[in-house]
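Most newcomers find our protein records easier to grasp once they have seen one. Read left to right, the backbone structure tokens trace the chain's path through space. Once this layout is familiar, the rest of the handout is easier to follow. The record below serves as our worked example for the rest of this section:


***
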Amino acid sequence: MNGTTHDVRLRAEQLIGERRPFVTATVVRAQQPTSAHPGDTAIVFSDGTIEGFVGGQCAQNSVREAARGALDSGESVLLRVLPDGAPPFPKTSGADVVVNPCLSGGAMEIFLEPTLPAHVLSLYGDTPIADAVVEFARVLDLDVVRSSAAEAVTEDATAVIIASLGGEEALTIRAALDAGVQYIGLVASRVRGAAVLEQLELTDSERARVHTPVGMYIGAKTPAEIALSIVVDVVRAIRLDGVSVARNDPVATTALDPICGMTVTINADTPHLEDDGVDVWFCSPGCRHKYEKT
């Protein structure tokens, strides 16, 4: 493992601890005269910032675009970057093919692997059901945050489960709704759950976010079975309904290169010039030079 790869892995561990989403980009194939080599690695953020090396400026533009897609989908992708005029390459499942008109020649394959923060499950209550929820959630790599204070609802929670079987349940539901949590589960019978919700003035959209009785119906009776039904329904909501915490990642600003038509990410290093008071952005100094000559 070379020094750069080692540095990228250390940086990745730091970002995971900070709960910051990123993409690890690794060059797996590179043909001359590309400047990248197999094994070159970088970290790519949602705003287009790249830490590390996966090729020159032209290749980086393609990587930035594909990395944003990987972060949005949460799925890894193999990016094939071909120079303009290369023979057509069939698109296969899990692979994206882009023709980069400013690539100097050769082809590249870059594996993009997104890393997103683990889903956070905020859990309220000190009961056998709550204890069992913790055990199941941790097996599934959910980050569990336990609290007894309603006002401590975390804004980065994907789901809030109230398994206190009493106490300030209505207050906790309201705090979770105000924090923007999309999945809120109350452990209660239908009758008691309805009574708790009657204490709140809920809009239709807010009511849709509160699940009571919480959990997928499996005929659960024991605390462990009830906890299993709860965690199963949280996973269903995440995987099938798209429930997640709203990410406030910096969004990249992009522009269209008027020469080659590429979408470029605007940052401090992006070539540009001012034309009649309008900023014009380019994928490379070569395209900027062509624009200046027109």
Q: What stands out?
A: The chain has three domains: 3-117, 120-239, 253-294. The two ends are 47 Å apart (CA to CA).
